Amino acid sequence: MSxxxxxxxxxxxxxxxxxxxxxxxxxxxxxxxxLDTGAMYRAMTVAVLAAGxxxxxxxxxxxxxxxxxxxxxxxxxxxxxxxxxxxxxxxxRGSDVTAGVSAVSAVPGVRHRLVGIQRSQVQAARDAxxxxxxxxxxxxxxxxxxADLKVFLIADPAVRAHRRALESSPGRPPEQESVxxxxxxLLERDAxxxxxxxxxxxxxxxxxxxxxxxxxxxxxxxQVCALAAGVQR
Length: 233
Hints:
Layout: E1 8-12, H1 19-30, E2 33-36, H2 37-51, H3 58-67, E3 70-73, E4 80-83, E5 86-87, H4 95-105, H5 108-127, E6 132-136, H6 139-143, E7 149-154, H7 157-168, H8 176-195, E8 208-211, H9 217-229
Parallel strand pairs: 1-6, 1-7, 2-6, 7-8
Antiparallel strand pairs: 3-4, 4-5
């Protein structure tokens, strides 16, 4: 299957809903590029933490952001993220980054700068006639309000917590304490993302809701691809 007409798909949803896996799968299936905007905010957080600035000092955070060069590879089979020439694909998943990314991403200047980069990459994919699948929390509402297809991906919080805990303990069942802690952290992140003043996580009025709670990854990818096939440009 191919989406060679420059289709732009915006996928939003809460943490742990499966956005990355679904978006990469859809992009690979349709022959499109893939952009993880969350990885960009995490990369910026790596830079801010490395600079040792106070995350609550917006001016200091922005001073770092203005000097930071972030590059994303948009190949769904091999995505990547760099700070300058440094590959930070592994370090962006550290616990310190997870704890700090909400504060960094809430700085208006940071969001403005990264949104500009995101839109440039989307335009490049559209100009190339390849198309792109973009994931995040404000893609359909702020970054790409004119996307050809908007998807709001959800899943039951308990299911999201179990899946996230599995990621932390590959090859063995996660401990109940781990699942409970992950569940609590996800609910806190949901509340923060939905309640923040700048670019909150909300469903765009014209987004298609896809509930991944009772479906496999392959089935969710199939559902999104079917929605893409019905888009009239």
